[in-house]
Design brief:
The complex is a heterotetramer, with 2 copies of chain A (455 residues) and 2 copies of chain B (155 residues).
Chain A (H helix, E strand, L loop, with lengths): L8 E4 L3 H14 L2 E7 L6 H5 L2 E6 L10 H10 L4 E3 L9 H9 L3 E2 L4 H8 L1 H11 L14 H11 L3 E5 L9 E3 L2 H19 L4 E5 L5 E9 L5 E13 L2 E7 L6 H17 L4 E9 L5 E7 L6 H8 L3 H9 L13 E8 L11 E2 L2 E3 L6 E4 L7 E2 L6 E9 L2 H14 L1 E3 L5 H9 L1 H5 L6 H7 L8
Parallel strand pairs in A: 1-2, 1-4, 2-3, 4-5
Antiparallel strand pairs in A: 6-7, 6-8, 9-10, 9-12, 10-11, 11-14, 12-13, 14-19, 15-18, 16-20, 17-19
Helix pairs in contact in A: 4-5, 7-8, 12-13
Chain B lengths: L2 H12 L3 E8 L2 E6 L40 E5 L4 E4 L15 E2 L4 E7 L2 E6 L4 E6 L6 E2 L4 E7 L4
The chains are: A alpha+beta (455), B mainly beta (155).
């Protein structure tokens, strides 16, 4: 009457809410769990909730949660058959996936080759092009000559962006709005690139004024089934950190959703991809979409999709890793939204670790909480600031937003600062409620000084 | 304030919902902060599927760390890595050290096997082995006390 | 862009989790709330969560939560436009509904007439008969003569039950399995009835060996729309106290579900019923169903239906009371189950009020918690023992049961005894998992001494 | 400060809604913080929809109960019902009592209007009115202090 568990025992190579999430999935499938922890996390909930726990090192993540030998040893001494890496840490480390293989432990995720392929942006991009998935138009690699650059810039069209190949942090970067500016901008970028990185290599790409960041959730099993489970709109971000995710995206027509889903499935098939993955796209204001990258792991925001489809993605990951087929996802219903509650100042986003003097979580209809914290716990300063994910669903977007506002107001946390006031202000914001936001929204929103509004 | 008095005070606070207690008198200042959570021992939730009969108990029980009381002239060698503890280089060979063995800094005390590699654990001190906390073949996690060394007087 | 709230302010005439449930619905609709409380509940969460709160009396419920003048006055001084009664207390008190009307306050529930009608079992039963809804076969009122009784008993068929009209508690009650026993049983019952209640009046009814208790959720608005939102199987009860409810019922075919839903809609229409209501049926082992009664209020177990249909029943109640139409419920998906977590010994069910030294609620996918308690709160001995409702959903019944077992194991409560161990044992029980239980199940289950099993 | 004294202090605090206690005297400083819920005053969460502009503030503010400190020879008359407090039988009439009025058991002190009915509140004691805690026309909830009476010496 009961299904045989896909594994007898799984080691969870992570901490915090995602470790708890994986332990929950295992428990529901009758799989025993092994937690790992650093000496800073001895009292953490993931340690308490697992069937066994092994200390793998001191607080520094490279010595504990990223310590491959100790983690593999922990799997060996506990006789765990498989390792779930969660997100972050070793989850997109092809080397780790390979070592798991050679140690005879199943890595719950895609193959090392898939991880490597998608980790190499240039290779991933050219594979997508071959597969007919639209990519952000631009030069393939560095610019060789000024003439070539000029020709290419006409093909791509304006505005475009010049970026240092070795770059980052805005240095060696120029946005060009018309051809007359191109020459000067190219030289300036090259000079800046050379000064900053010792290399004047730059490349050019189409620049999007108000893009949306929309990703498609994929599930692929070893028998060749590949399913798309709709999208998540992650355009509400600050400095590339996602703050809010929702589905359906307020701007996707069902035709565009279908096209993007087809493209994502095609991408996964072309890469021989197996397990859960996410294909990230930019959507411009004329509803064209372009491949950015593929994340080869479970995402922080996966509960949005789980809620809409009533589908347990983590269980699916574990089943796929055991060579079992996955169920078709069926239809989604309603609207789901996730707010990331961080231990940060709500307006400056400065970290705010500390002791949780009070931690009263919201409840009632349509509310899901994923957190590894509780009243009396301490948020250690060593790790990331995500302390809870609050996910709600409603029949309509309006109901979901109203429910989120209600749940946020119920969430009582004392002892630290959190991003709850930011989210409350956002849920009441007319522009956000209209759904016409893009990735630049948060900056504009903050410039309107929402903290001054009486709430 | 004697340890007895502190113990009495702790007992007193244990049964209350007090989370922070500070007292300063006669040059003594004490501050006690309590977690609402009982801490220290790791909770082992019962397997909710044990009825199914499919899941045997773990063959390897990772024991909880029972930290020995440190004394001024003793040092504890703890596990720097996760693995399996061995007292000798092979099943046939004699143990590296016994209780009472006099050891020198750099001398091999035991082995931790991890990922098929035998990692030799060396003494960081000159002294005498006072205690061996692990059984041969036992699993060890990071930071577990392995061997206690009494430091020689001239160390 | 935002809908106008159906009311400006609603008074919630209840306490505990249902008061919180109503406050949550109001907040999501932009309706301000007034809590009422007894002096024993000054620190309760429903008082903290409401916009305003009025103390209406001492701990005794007849002087506070059932104190009609004080509750009406509280609505008047706070200028509340409507009163939501929750369940229990004044929720099925036609007199209270009438007083609300005359005081110019909207009663969020059916009309006083509907409440009266359904509160009178004989009238309700005869209305159902007229409407063609099957009722439990039996004598209409008391037995007049032995001959009439014998004739009727043949019509009804065996086994049947003889009950004292004035009775209760098993006295004057006889189950008769064959005709040869009938005469003796009738006389014995009459004698016992006379001794116990001073009246030898008895009536006879069909006796069901292994009935299931299955109820249909109804929503009816003022414009004549009546919707059935599937069933809830409430057969897991002890001494008529429901402990677990699930939907879909493991024994209902989709045809039987349709027939029962149609009967429930017919019943509601015949009664001119408006607002949320529940039609309770017995289902015998040959899948015949019989009307028992109609509950004219929101039920404790309403979240089971809300979860399956992604439909907020309390919001619907408030909208209906404001004369607004309700949305069609659409299709349900998956399987939902609710466990009532009571402050009671898990095996003897003796009450166990006290201080919550620890109260760590479960979370993660598919888990909903409705509770008004929190770590550090005290469960007062004056009120009922329900401290939390734990509702989970899954794609299949098996997933829902496994998820419930997982969530129950996560739920940490210290300081009092709770029914969590009972529920954990139940979720692991082979017979329960088969789904073939009836209302006698819990008694049998307990006789198997589940507390002796290693868990 | 002895443990006995600390115990007595903890017991004292246990039954209260105090969450933080600090005392400094004669060279002794003590600070006690208690878990977890602050109690007593009712939290007023901000209306999450106030942006909508549709919901005006409540016209009637139900004040929180601020219990007066009881003294040995005074008694407080509290509201036995919920309603609106009036000091006189009609707007034109004089108040039933003023501060300093000498009252007898059974004498009417004030009125609480509830469900259109005027409920006369009688004194339960002989004595002198020391305080009137409510304004005319104010909303009162159950148990709210209305009037304080100093009991006559022979009462």
């Amino acid at each position: 009457m009961k299904n045989t568990p896909p594994f007898k025992k799984v080691l969870v190579a992570n901490r915090g809410e995602i470790a708890l999430r994986i332990i929950r999935a295992c428990r529901e499938m009758g799989v025993r769990t092994v937690a790992i922890y650093s000496t800073a996390d001895r009292e953490s909930l993931h340690v308490r909730m697992a069937d066994e726990a092994v200390c793998v090192g001191p607080p520094e993540t490279n010595l504990s949660y990223r310590n491959i030998p100790n983690i593999i040893s922990a799997a060996e001494i506990t006789q765990a058959e498989a390792i779930h890496p969660g997100y972050g840490f070793l989850s997109e480390n092809a080397h780790f996936a390979e070592i798991c293989q050679s140690a005879g432990v199943v890595f719950i995720g895609p193959s090392p080759d898939s991880i490597s392929l998608m980790g190499d942006k240039a290779r991933a991009k050219s594979l997508m092009k071959e597969t007919g998935v639209p990519v952000v138009p631009g030069s393939e690699g560095a610019i060789v000559s000024e003439e070539e650059a000029m020709t290419l810039s006409r093909e791509i069209g304006y505005p475009l962006i010049i970026k240092a190949s070795a770059g980052g942090g805005g240095r060696g970067m120029r946005i060009v709005h018309q051809e007359s500016e191109f020459d000067n901008a190219l030289h300036a970028a090259q000079t800046e690139a050379f000064q900053a990185f010792g290399s004047k290599e730059v490349y050019i790409e189409k620049y999007f004024q108000n893009p949306r960041h929309v990703e498609i959730q994929i599930l692929a099993d070893t028998e060749g089934r590949v399913y798309a489970l709709g999208e998540r709109d992650c355009s509400i971000q600050r400095r590339h950190q996602k703050l809010v995710e929702e589905s359906p995206s307020p701007v996707l027509s069902s035709r565009l959703r279908q096209e993007m889903s087809d493209a994502a499935v095609r991408a996964a098939r072309a890469a021989g991809y197996v397990n859960a993955g996410t294909v990230e796209f930019l959507v411009d204001d004329r509803k064209n979409f372009f491949f950015i990258e593929m994340n080869t792991r479970i995402q922080v925001e996966h509960p949005v999709t789980e809620t809409l489809f009533q589908y347990d993605l983590v269980k699916a990951q574990i089943r796929i890793a055991a060579g079992l087929p996955v169920d078709p996802p069926g239809k989604s219903a309603g609207h789901a939204i996730e707010c990331r509650i961080n231990a940060e100042d709500p307006w400056t986003f400065a970290p705010s670790p500390g002791h949780l003097d009070r931690f009263l979580v919201p409840g009632g209809p349509g509310v899901r909480i994923d957190t590894a914290f509780f009243e009396g716990a301490t948020i250690p300063p060593q790790y990331d600031s995500l302390i809870a994910k609050l996910i709600v669903n409603g029949r309509t977007r309006e109901e979901a937003l109203d429910r989120m506002a209600r749940a946020l107001a119920e969430f009582e946390i004392e002892g630290i600062r959190t991003t709850i006031p930011f989210h409350i202000a956002l849920m009441q914001d007319e522009a956000f409620r209209k759904g016409t936001y893009s990735t630049g929204f948060v900056e504009h929103f903050l410039s309107r000084r929402p903290w001054e509004r009486p709430s | 304030m004697t340890n007895e008095e502190i113990r009495a005070l702790l007992n007193l606070l244990q049964s209350t919902n007090v989370t922070l207690f500070e007292l300063e008198q006669e040059g003594v200042r004490i501050k006690i902060q309590k977690s609402p959570l009982s801490v220290g021992d790791t909770l082992r939730l019962p397997s909710i599927r044990s009825m199914g009969g499919e899941v045997p108990d773990s063959a390897t029980n990772v024991p909880l760390q029972s930290a020995p009381t440190p004394r001024a002239n003793t040092r504890t060698i703890t596990a720097p890595i996760v693995g399996t503890f061995y007292r000798s280089p092979s099943p046939e060979a004699a143990a590296y050290v016994e209780i009472g063995s006099v050891v020198q800094k750099g001398q091999i005390l035991c082995i931790i096997e991890a990922m098929k590699l035998m990692n030799e654990i060396e003494s960081e001190f000159d002294g005498t082995v006072k205690a061996i906390f692990m059984e041969n073949g036992q699993s060890v996690e990071y930071g577990m006390p392995l061997i206690e060394i009494e430091i020689g007087p001239e160390a």
